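Give me structure tokens for this 118-residue protein.
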Amino acid sequence: MKRVTYAGSEFVTGDDIASALLSCGRALAEAGEAEAVTVPSWEQDGTITGVTVLIGPSSQIVVQDARVDAEELIDVTAIARLHAVERRLRPVAAIDVDTRDQESWAADQRNQAWDGEL
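Here you go.
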């Protein structure tokens, strides 16, 4: 588990959640945007609550290991929401390239180079 310190407050959350929070914060900072996000936190009495933080360009978040007597806090939905914000800010295009097309293109390039030398 991780202890997150933000704006003078602390909360404990899962490792993957804290990592996703930092990654989302980095993407928001790079884009010059801010957004309020909610992540689950573990309370000392064992209950799970939600913490809403405003992260953006001037966020200063510290994450450190936390020693707690509880199972790792896992919330795939919260992680997915944080990653969705990050993907919105850092879109990635995937291109499926057929290697036969690459071989054909390379052969055309060789033929053009050869034709140019005559």
